[in-house]
């Protein structure tokens, strides 16, 4: 119903974007996305940190301070009577004099329906399609997902849920989530060419034994378990990469235990 557009809260249907905004003509902008549960934003401090860092890293000025952003978000949850849902914050590249240099970004914060994976995906696990690629500006949450959007047709045709990006044999992440394996009880996740997920941060805190380091495709195929994490998926077990079965071919016990611990943490935070 209501969103924040540039400098005030308005009806979402009245929000507009100039067609010459750099977000439109150059695909330049940043965003973030968090969930709301029991009318409370989950891990908001972490998402605000990342959003503010992305804005700085892309030379886009944010008109609102951290406290003002927080205030607006709480007001939007209230005005939209939101109990469960998601919010997207976008800072566009803005209007630019030469249609190229970063301008003064326009800020939008709006409620969004959650597209959650089906229960079957958690109980049976998913397949990833390996693909040679590195996300440009991987550490920054830019709005540029042209490549994965374009490529989604191919992974769907292959019967996969998503992709697993790798370059020179080394894994980075999936299109919108981080990737992990479990080997001999230890959690291993790549350190380079990734977006540092907020879910990843908490999963790493919940894991007993862990290594954050380079992870090769060969090593991943020999894993006992594998999974991906993201804000909307939380933790989805991976049971197949290309034509290779991972572990027993079923979601693994350590993965499922981490999922349960993460859900408990969330419930504690919003109860
Ligand atoms: N990697 C990429 C490229 C993403 O787009 C995302 C998700 O939003 C993630 C990882 C996972 O991050 P988070 O757990 O903060 O949603």
TrEMBL record:
EC number: 2.6.1.42
Pathway(s) of this molecule: Amino-acid biosynthesis; L-valine biosynthesis; L-valine from pyruvate: step 4/4; Amino-acid biosynthesis; L-leucine biosynthesis; L-leucine from 3-methyl-2-oxobutanoate: step 4/4; Amino-acid biosynthesis; L-isoleucine biosynthesis; L-isoleucine from 2-oxobutanoate: step 4/4
SUPFAM superfamilies, alphabetized: D-aminoacid aminotransferase-like PLP-dependent enzymes
Gene Ontology molecular function terms on file: transaminase activity
Family annotation (Gene3D superfamilies): 3.30.470.10, D-amino Acid Aminotransferase, subunit A, domain 2
InterPro entries per UniProt: Aminotrans_IV (IPR001544), Aminotransferase-like (IPR036038), BCAT-like_C (IPR043132), BCAT-like_N (IPR043131), Class-IV_PLP-Dep_Aminotrnsfr (IPR050571)
Record's protein name: branched-chain-amino-acid transaminase
Catalytic reaction list: L-valine + 2-oxoglutarate = 3-methyl-2-oxobutanoate + L-glutamate; L-isoleucine + 2-oxoglutarate = (S)-3-methyl-2-oxopentanoate + L-glutamate; L-leucine + 2-oxoglutarate = 4-methyl-2-oxopentanoate + L-glutamate
Pfam families associated with the record: Aminotran_4
Top-level taxon: Bacteria
Family, similarity comment: Belongs to the class-IV pyridoxal-phosphate-dependent aminotransferase family.
Keyword terms of this UniProt record: Aminotransferase, Transferase
């Amino acid at each position: 119903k209501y969103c924040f557009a540039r400098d005030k809260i308005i009806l979402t249907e009245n929000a507009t974007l100039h067609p010459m905004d750099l977000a439109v003509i150059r695909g330049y902008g940043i965003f973030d996305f968090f969930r709301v549960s029991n009318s409370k934003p989950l891990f908001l401090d972490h998402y605000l940190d990342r959003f503010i860092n992305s804005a700085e890293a892309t030379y886009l000025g944010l008109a609102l301070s951290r406290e003002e952003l927080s205030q607006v978000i709480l007001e939007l949850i209230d005005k939209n009577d939101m109990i469960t849902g998601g919010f997207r914050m976008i800072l566009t590249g803005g209007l630019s004099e030469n249609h190229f240099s970063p301008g003064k970004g326009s800020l939008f914060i709006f409620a969004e329906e959650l597209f959650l994976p089906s229960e079957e995906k958690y109980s049976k696990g998913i397949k990833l399609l390996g693909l040679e690629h590195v996300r440009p500006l991987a550490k920054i949450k830019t709005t540029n997902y042209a490549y994965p959007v374009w490529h989604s047709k191919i992974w769907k045709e292959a019967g996969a849920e998503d992709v697993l990006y790798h370059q020179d044999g080394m894994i980075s992440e999936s299109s919108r989530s981080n990737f992990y394996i479990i080997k001999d009880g230890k959690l291993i996740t790549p350190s380079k060419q990734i977006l540092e997920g907020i879910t990843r941060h908490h999963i790493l805190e919940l894991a007993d034994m862990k290594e954050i380091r380079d992870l090769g495709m060969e090593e991943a195929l020999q894993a006992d378990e594998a999974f991906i994490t993201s804000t909307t998926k939380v933790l989805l077990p991976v049971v197949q990469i290309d034509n290779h079965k991972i572990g027993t071919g079923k979601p693994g016990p350590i993965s499922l235990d981490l999922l349960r611990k993460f859900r408990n943490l969330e419930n504690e935070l919003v109860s």
